[in-house]
Amino acid sequence: MSDNNIVNPNAEGQEQAAASAEAATATTNVPVQQPVQEVATAHDDFDWSVDKRNVASYSNEEKEKYDKVYENTFVQLNDGELIKGTVVGITKTDVVLNIGFKSDGLVSLNEFRDLQGLKVGDEVEVMVVEKEDRDGNLNLSRKQARITRAWERIVEIHKTGEIVTGTVTSKTKGGLIVDVFGMETFLPGSQIDVKPVTDYDQFVGKTMEFKVVKINEAIKNAVVSHKALIESDIEAQRAQIIGQLEKGQVLEGTVKNITDFGAFMDLGGLDGLLYITDISWGRINHPSEVLKLDQKINVVVLDFDDEKKRISLGLKQLTPHPWDVLPETIAEGSTVRGKVVNIEDYGAFLEILPGVEGLVHVSEITWANTPINAKEFFKLGDEHEAKVVTLDKESRKMSLSIKQLSDDPWSDIETKFPEGSRHTGVVKNITPYGVFVELTPGIGGMIHISDLSWLKRFNHPSEYTKVGENIDVVILGIDKENRKLQLGHKQLEEDPWNSLQDTFAVGTIHEGTVSRKDDKGAIVQLPYGLEGFAPNRHLAKEDGKSVGADETAEFMVIEFDRNEKRIVVSHARIWEQAAADEKDAARKEAKADAEKTKKAVKTIQGKVEKATLGDLGALAQIKEKLQQEEKDNNDQK
Fold first, then answer.
1. For residue 243, what is the DSSP state?
2. Contact by Cβ (8 Å): 145, 125
3. pLDDT tens for each residue of 326-360
4. What is the CA 249 to chain-centroid distance, rounded?
5. Ranges of Low complexity compositional bias (predicted)?
6. What pTM was estimated for this model as a whole?
7. Which CATH class is domain 334-405?
8. Which CATH architecture has domain 245-318?
9. In whole angstroms, what separates CA 212 from the centre of its chain?
10. What is the DSSP string of 59-104?
11. Residues 531, 496: contact at Cβ < 8 Å?
């Protein structure tokens, strides 16, 4: 059956009834009665021009007209289009929307959580995601519609600079997520407040005002800032405050940040810097010794720059300079007590009062004339008593002395430490040329390196003693004017060189050990603590090798100088002398044999009056032997 035909359900029955009546009339031959006037019925106006299949056909013109009417009853849609829809039904999970399309659309009820009291008949805006999905259903989204509208508004607001209101929904890495017009935007941690923020959780759920500072059209991402609004307010306050600033003006500020070089103060929308040198008249190592974060204090304006908007502040300037109100008890000759606040090579500074310091020069530490290292004597923070030597309030300078708190021990030095007296002192300092020894506080002297030992030679005094060790000394000389004592250590004993001259006479042989070697020779440790020197050529052994370090061998004294305290020894001379002595002994023995033979020959010649041929032969042999021995003796010579 065609869609263009209309079916008449009664046509077939009427046709069958007419055929039966005609058949009955023909069989009975009943005369035909006059027609009776018919009564009009509902079927009289029906178009009975239908075919035998009870259908009717439309022309092409009619068909096109009716198709157009049918299509005009629906709206035309495109994917991604925003359109208004009416709520026609609400289920437990979805909202049914009529958007004038040939079918209704379903939207998840979760997308309407922000709308309280949603009901049938409400009109909402949605986006056409797909006109027909794989199942032929209309796919709509209110969330996508909100995001699109939100993005359009955000882009416009970014251009105009308008302030928006958003709600912080969650925390993320590096910042917060803010819902603006239903779209998620990013709030970096650095843009939350002008002050550093460490606890992001405190902002979750809060509704705040923001400014759109950055957008990305490609990925539809926006960055917002709350700090920008605060800064704009602060900028307005800053301009107002700077316009009213004057040098010397006292303001109340809050400690905003503390650094090594000072503290930043919040002056009510304007920041100022309080340098560490302007915090206190006294010395401080760090501003945190005086200030604390969020502390409110009064400060004075020292200087400001309108263009750079920099303000220098002072705290100590609110009180008089301590030198201007110095107590009368601090005067020349008075005794004061102070804390070490600075140490230099030339002395140390003691803080008597905050902002009032005096210098203790190294020469005023002790009466002794020995060198004093201020950095070893003083320690930062230690307290010392000192005498005020000079005081100049105008230049704000004070010189102090520690040694003048006691009497000068050098005034009667000859009585306490006469020449030749023996004492025990403490090694205070060691230099390459000597050892400084303190006998009593303020009294000391130096032992020259040559006066440490009679027998040993030292390259450095540290080979003999160490700082802090006790050492016995004898007073060799007193220089009262220059406050110097000449001390000796070896003089505590008699000079052993006087008695060693015979023991280590030239030619004597002693056992020794090579203690060290250099390019010139070796130092040999000899008996009685003496040291000798052996030149390289005198270290040669009989086998051609040389005596090595730490090796023990016999050495012959070839030089002994008592005045210079010098002994020169040789190992080579020992075996060379032995070889020479052996040759000399052999020569003497050969000479003795020759003399004996000559005497025997003379004796024989005297007894024999006439030689026989045999005797002459024997004599010839004796004569030849004598000549050979004489030749050997001459070769040895």
1. H
2. yes
3. 998 999 999 999 999 999 999 999 999 988 999 99
4. 41
5. 11-28
6. 0.41
7. mainly beta
8. Beta Barrel (2.40)
9. 38
10. -HHHHHHHHHHHHTTS----TT-EEEEEEEEE-SSEEEEE-SSSS-
11. no
